[in-house]
Amino acid sequence: MSAPAQDRTRVSTRALLVAGLVVALLVAGVASYYASAHPDGLEHVAEQTGFLDTAEDSPTADSPLADYSTKGVDDERLSVGIAGVTGTLVVLVLAGGLALALRRRGPAGAEEDPADERAHAPERA
Known about the structure:
Blueprint: H1 13-29, H2 41-49, H3 76-102, H4 114-120
C-alpha cells in the first residue's frame, strides 16, 4: 500500500495576514529610511534636460506626510518611519474596505453554513 500520509502543518489565513502585516510595517518603518536619496526617473530626466526649475510644488506639499516625511518630527529616521507606517496602514485600510465592499456574496436567502454543506456532501472513497 501507499506510505502513511505525513502530517503537514497548515498555516491559518489569519496568521498569514498578521505575518504579512508585520513584514510590511517593518519594511515601511525601518527599511524605508535606507531607500535611495537619488531623484526618481522623471525628476532625473527633468534635471538632465534642463526643465526641473520649471516644476511647481504640489497642492499637497504642505501636508503632514509630504516628501516621505512627517511634519513636526525632527529626527529624520523617525520621521520617515512614521510616514512609511502611516502610509502602509492607510493603504491596508483602503484595500481592506474595498475588499469587504466587493466581496462575493451568495444569492439572497442562501444563508446555509458552509460546514453544513461539507457534512451533507457524499464521502469520497
